[in-house]
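Thread amino acids onto this structure.
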C-alpha cells in the first residue's frame, strides 16, 4: 500500500504562522522605543526638506526631483535594514528572552524570516515622509508602472543590506554593533551618491563608487524611477555584494550558535 505524502503547502502553514508571530513581536518591540521609530522615519525626510527642497533648480525639475527622492529613498532603506538587523539583532541577543527562544523546538528559519519581514516593513514605512514631502514640495512625478517598479525595488535593495545588518548583529555586542552600523552606513551613503549626485564626484571617487553596493542600489533605483540609464555594472555589483554579505551573515549566525549553545 502506497501512502501519498501531504502537499507541500500543508507544511508551510505552521512555518508561516511562526514567521508572522516573530515579525509581529519584533515590530512591537521597535514601536515601544519611540525614539527609534522617529529616527527611522524622520532623518531621510529631513534631509530632503533641508538639503533638496530649498534648491529651486531641483524642485522645479521633475526629473531632478524624482532622482533626488530616489537617492534618499535608497538611503532610507539602507538605514532601516542596517539598524533593524544590525543594532536590533545585537540588542536582542543580549536579552535573556532571546536565549529562551533559541531553546524552543522551532528551527531558526521562522525567526530569521520574521526579522526580514520586520525590516522590510520599516523600510517601506521610512519612505512615507519622503513621498509626502516629494508630493507636496517638489515637482517629482511617477507613472503607475514606475511607481510599481519602485515598490519592487525596495525589496531588492533591502536584501543585501539586511544580510549585512545580520552579519553585524550576530557578530558583535550591542555597543559595537551600533557603532559599526553608523560607521558603515554613512560612508557608504556618501560614497554611493545618496546625498550628492555621482555626476558631481571627481573621477577617482566615481570609479571607487561604482564598486560599492550603495552606488549600485542607487543607480538601479534611479533608473527604475526616472528612466535615466545607470551603470552597466550596477546589477552585477549588487548581486556580488549580496553573495558576500550572505556568506558573512551565515558565518556570523553559525559562530553565534556554536559559541552560545554548544
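Threaded sequence (262 positions):
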Amino acid at each position: 500500500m502506497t501512502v501519498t505524502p501531504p502537499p507541500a503547502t500543508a507544511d508551510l502553514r505552521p512555518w508561516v504562522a511562526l514567521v508572522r508571530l516573530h515579525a509581529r513581536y519584533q515590530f512591537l518591540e521597535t514601536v515601544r522605543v519611540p525614539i527609534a521609530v522617529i529616527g527611522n522615519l524622520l532623518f531621510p525626510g529631513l534631509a530632503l526638506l533641508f538639503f533638496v527642497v530649498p534648491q529651486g533648480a531641483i524642485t522645479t525639475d521633475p526629473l531632478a526631483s524624482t532622482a533626488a527622492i530616489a537617492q534618499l529613498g535608497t538611503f532610507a532603506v539602507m538605514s532601516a535594514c542596517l539598524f533593524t538587523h544590525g543594532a536590533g539583532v545585537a540588542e536582542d541577543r543580549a536579552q535573556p528572552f532571546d536565549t529562551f527562544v533559541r531553546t524552543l523546538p522551532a528551527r531558526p528559519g521562522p525567526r530569521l524570516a520574521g526579522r526580514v519581514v520586520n525590516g522590510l516593513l520599516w523600510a517601506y514605512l521610512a519612505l512615507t515622509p519622503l513621498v509626502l514631502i516629494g508630493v507636496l514640495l517638489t515637482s517629482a512625478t511617477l507613472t503607475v508602472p514606475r511607481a510599481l517598479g519602485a515598490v519592487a525595488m525596495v525589496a531588492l535593495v533591502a536584501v543585501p543590506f539586511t544580510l549585512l545588518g545580520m552579519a553585524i548583529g550576530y557578530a558583535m555586542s550591542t555597543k559595537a554593533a551600533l557603532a559599526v552600523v553608523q560607521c558603515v552606513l554613512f560612508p557608504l551613503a556618501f560614497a554611493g551618491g545618496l546625498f550628492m549626485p555621482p555626476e558631481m564626484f571627481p573621477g577617482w571617487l566615481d570609479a571607487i563608487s561604482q564598486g560599492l553596493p550603495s552606488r549600485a542600489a542607487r543607480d538601479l533605483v534611479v533608473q527604475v524611477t526616472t528612466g535615466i540609464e545607470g551603470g552597466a555594472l550596477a546589477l552585477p555589483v549588487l548581486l556580488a555584494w549580496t553573495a558576500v554579505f550572505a556568506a558573512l551573515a551565515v558565518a556570523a549566525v553559525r559562530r553565534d550558535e556554536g559559541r552560545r549553545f554548544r
